[in-house]
Design brief:
two-stranded antiparallel sheet; alpha+beta; 5-stranded antiparallel β-sheet
Length: 397
């Protein structure tokens, strides 16, 4: 870079209207025979910087000339070090970095800011500019609402790519949330793909036809999720979770019309356990356990060490499928359906009600499935449950 060009950069980007510092200017331009600090850079780079000087000023912004010298020198070195690997001319590099800083509220002097590499940043800049996402109200709102939007975009792109989805869905999800005046800060790397799928499967204020099937929930597989929910909510026999209130079992026994006769109980329970519950059964052998007595019997069974294996299997064989089908049928006429974040904001979930029944769903992979169906403790305010974490409303409340 010749002295004249270096002097121009000094004036425009280091001096920036302050009093001339002769020593600093000489340091930049050089004085024969000593070269200036910028002499090692090319004239082409000097011309490219000069052409975009006004756009570069927002991030060559230290409080004094020494600080601005360091910033500009860092920037010039970064251009020389990075542009070759990015296959950019000096002017193209300027444009890319200016866009990056402008769109993402940054003041970077270089692209290499791990974990984001220059190639990653260039890919993001290119895809945004190609579709003019930088002008989209949703993109602008997201970048204004969150800290480090560049990193959020980088992380969400990875999540979409891992899921086999187009990385540009990052921007369509922003647009969707803003378009429907939904909380745009609910979008992050943990929720992005869920919101993407749910925006198509159950958009705001639409009719929901119900779940086609159960999903794996927190149990790892669909069959295990179905089985564990029946054991927990109908029998209070989940291997790892106790039921909050055993009155729920009575609700399910009546809903599923579960029949347990005195004869079956006596045949499959130990003498001690049967003696503890027999007063709840009718006197005749074929008499079935009244629904009003289910809670008491469940409590005695739980206190007595749990259901005998043969009797539990009899109930599972006879009614587990009915429980699964009953829940799916309830989902076809739910009210108060909302899409909401979970307590840790790590997933997006769906809540729906059918009378006293709570139904929860979620996306697993790309499939929307029923995760749970149960009857909460009667004092629970089901209508208000999770409303504080609502992302959008599906059915009218």
């Amino acid at each position: 870079m010749d002295a004249a060009r270096a002097g121009t950069l000094y004036t425009k980007l280091i001096q920036q209207g302050s009093a001339e510092d002769a020593a600093m200017k000489e340091r930049v331009t050089g004085k024969d025979p000593k070269p200036g600090a910028f002499n090692r850079f090319s004239n082409a780079l000097a011309d490219a910087v000069d052409a975009r000087a006004d756009d570069l000023k927002p991030f060559i912004d230290a409080g004094d000339q020494q600080g601005r010298f360091v910033q500009l020198n860092t920037f010039l070195m970064a251009v020389e070090a990075e542009r070759g690997g990015m296959a950019l001319t000096e002017a193209e590099y300027m444009t890319a970095l200016i866009r990056w800083n402008l769109w993402f509220k940054r003041k970077q002097l270089k692209f290499n800011m791990p974990p984001i590499k220059p190639a990653d940043a260039l890919a993001i800049i290119t895809e945004i500019h190609a579709a003019s996402w930088q002008d989209d109200a949703g993109f602008k709102a997201y970048c204004a609402a969150v800290d480090d939007p560049h990193r959020a975009v980088f992380d969400m792109r990875k999540v979409f790519a891992t899921a086999g989805l187009a990385v540009t869905y990052v921007y369509t999800v922003m647009h969707f949330l803003h378009q429907h005046t939904l909380p745009i800060d609910s979008l992050n790397e943990k929720t992005a793909t869920d919101i993407h799928h749910l925006s198509g499967k159950m958009p705001p204020l639409t009719a929901f036809a119900g779940y086609a099937d159960w999903g794996p929930g927190n149990n790892g597989s669909i069959p295990l999720n179905k089985a564990n929910h029946f054991l927990k909510h109908v029998l209070d026999a989940h291997p790892a979770e106790d039921l909050p209130w055993q009155g729920e079992c009575a609700v399910w026994w009546e809903a599923l019309d579960i029949k347990l006769t005195r004869a079956d109980a006596e045949a499959r329970m130990s003498g001690t356990l049967f003696n503890a519950v027999k007063t709840h059964f009718p006197a005749e052998a074929t008499g079935r356990l009244p629904f009003a007595k289910v809670e008491a019997v469940i409590g005695a069974v739980k206190s007595g060490g749990g259901w005998p294996a043969l009797l539990q299997q009899q109930l599972v064989t006879g009614y587990a499928d009915a429980y699964v089908a009953y829940a799916l049928n309830l989902s076809r006429s739910m009210t108060n359906i909302i899409v909401h974040t979970d307590a840790g904001a790590g997933r997006i979930l769906v809540k729906g009600l059918h009378g006293k029944f709570y139904l929860g769903g979620r996306i697993d992979g790309s499939t929307l499935g029923l995760s749970t169906c149960f009857v909460p403790i009667p004092t629970t305010n089901l209508v208000d449950l999770h409303l504080a974490r609502k992302v959008w409303q599906v059915s009218p409340i």
